[in-house]
Amino acid sequence: SQICTTTATLPQLRRSPEPKCGSGAMDLLIAQITTDLRSSDALRQSSALLQALQQCAAGRDVSALARTTATEILAAPSSAVCKRLALDLLRALPLPPDLLDPLLLSSLRSDLSFPDPDVAASSIASFPSLPSHLLPTLLSSAHADIAAALSSPAESLRLAAVTSLSSLLPRDDLALMCSTNPSLMGHATTWWGRLTELALDSADAVAAAAFEALARLFQELDARRMSRLAGDKLVDGEGALAVRAQWAADAIDFIWSRRNMLIARSMVMPVESFRVTVYPLVHAAKMVASGAVNTLRQIAKPGDTTIADTVEASAEKLVGVSDIVSHLLPFLSSLEPPLVFEVGINMLSLADAPGGKPEWASAAIIAILTLWDRQEFSSMRETIVRAVVANLHLLDLGMQVSLFKRLLQMLKNLRAESDRMHALACICRTALCVDLFAKESVRRGQKPVPGTDVISLFEDARVKDDLNSITSKSLFREELVASLVESCFQLSLPLPEQKNSGTESRVIGALAYGTGYGALNWTEPALDVVEVCRPCVLWDCDGRTYAIDCYLKLLVRLCHIYDTRGGVKTIKTGASQDQILNETRLRNLQLQLIRDLREVHTSRISSRLIWAISEHFDLEGLDPLLADDPEDPLNIIISNMHKTLFNTDSSATTSNRIQDVQAVLICAQRLGTRNARAGQLLSKELEEFRSSTSADSVTKHQSRYVLQIIKYVTNHPDNR
């Protein structure tokens, strides 16, 4: 009844005129609230406390009321409602240390054994907001009361105890204290044992809170991140880690041994609470299946040699994991998006455990992708994509191939600020690995899988149009090209050492798919990439050059590996069929890029492209009869060098023309010394450039230097 009267006074309080912010009006209000608090009328006290909370929420300073509240309400006999409001008010105020230590602690301590369970509940609920240095004394002295609260017949008290301990026990500061205080450690271990048992409590709210507590413990240990629960910034020491590892190992043992009961308990919970039961069950199953629970036991008791696998039979592990999967499977078709997502993510986690199956992953990913068009879940689109791309490697080949194009479309519709590059990198890396795997399978005489080559990523008309358009405003195409190229470079690196646990076993590169990892295998998909992304050199990207730079870097790397400067090799010189084919493809690509030079939009890219091609182009293989033909590759390169040297329009000068001219002059030096005809043509160009107004004093000197080198090489061809 008091709660009803208090809430009934709320609208009146809201309607009461707001005091002016002047100090006089505020002093009057505080004096009035203090008088009400000192009266022995419960209704006046609760109204005064509500008014103080209202002022506090409005950002006004009511810290003058702290002492009166502590002495008149908490330290004195008063109603349950007033005690709860007083605790709420004190939680919101900066408290002086002398008030905290003797007065507040003793009143909290005495309220724990208060006959009204609501008062005891509000007392235990205020533990997490106390400063760290007061906790050991309070928790040790209140051990019996906390244990009684966890076993209390009153649901509200059990719930408050579970909620309070679930935000207190996983904290960094408490784990550190337990590592140095054996008595507190003993109490905390007992409480954790009781918390895990409360997951089977008859009250839904208490069981859900206990599941949440377990989830929080596992997440704190798993992520090993600094706890944000109390705003503390403590770094985990070995002691704190051992403490948490012991709690987690005990909880995992309990969940695994009672998994069927816990599954049955979660099935009779209301649907909105069911979601919190998923993660603890899945995490425990995964830790047991992967054997990581033994690692936790070793961390908890470093010298213990008696630690052995408690679950002997791997068959039992597989059956247990399958039971949990079949328990979760029906919820993938739930109507509640957050539940579908939670179940999907956790099933992906189980698919990554030893004994996991691709069917589990595909069922989960299909369910998560159905959320894409759900209106009420649209803000989570980035999370959906991130979840799917991070688990692509768990699917079978056909499913991966069918997902690539769909995922590209999804990514294209995401905001540019969302982490698109990471998702693209995952997709491109997996696509290249699938391509490698398919090529390897064909070499072994298996049937080719359709749609596995990189080029099929660009089959979609919209992606193709985007790639071929010159002035598209979309950043997506630049991100796609850059990610593809970076993934090629990743494949070219030697493989990292293979790890065994969970997601760390995703090896970048072909070994993840069981291919023989040849040193040059990666160049085949890389050749596909440079061919399909060729239109990027013509793009006009408002001055951004990152994607095109990446592209040219990969092109130069391939030209260097296949030594294109020496022309296409023959079987007589010991080249294999594959090598001849790849070198011919690269030469054709170079010729195509030389033709594209005329249409390149920015002088910056033009000079970089001239550099990339002329360094690696086979000049000796050109037909001498076509020397006067404007379509001759060398003539096209030199006419574009002329264009860069004599380009004086405003856009060129603002986009750093000096650098472009430098690149072209160095290029002229290298080209002129490699080939006699190039030397003659470039000598004319450089003489003309030296005497023009386009050259400043530095470039004039540089031109003279290059001319001398070309002249020397022409006269002494053997000393080249």
Average pLDDT figure: 82
Helix segment tally = 34
Based on CA atoms alone, the radius of gyration comes out at: 36 Å
Instruction: Give the distance, in angstroms, between the N- and C-terminal Cα atoms.
Output: 103 Å
Largest sheet: none
InterPro entries: ARM-like (IPR011989), ARM-type_fold (IPR016024), TPLATE (IPR037501)
GO biological process, one term: endocytosis
Protein name: Protein TPLATE
Describe this structure in words.
With 720 residues, this protein is mostly helical. The chain is built from 34 helices and no strands. The protein has helices at residues 2-15, 23-38, 42-57, 66-74, 80-92, 97-112, 117-125, 135-141, 143-150, 155-168, 172-180, 182-197, 204-223, 238-257, 259-267, 271-290, 292-300, 314-328, 337-351, 358-370, 381-390, 397-412, 420-443, 461-468, 476-492, 523-532, 546-562, 577-596, 603-616, 633-645, 650-654, 657-674, 676-690, 697-715. The longest helix is centred in the middle third of the chain and has 24 residues, at 420-443. The chain is elongated, with a radius of gyration of 36 Å. The protein starts with a helix and ends in a 5-residue tail after the last helix.
In short:
This protein is an all-alpha fold and 720 residues long. The protein is 66% helix and 0% strand.
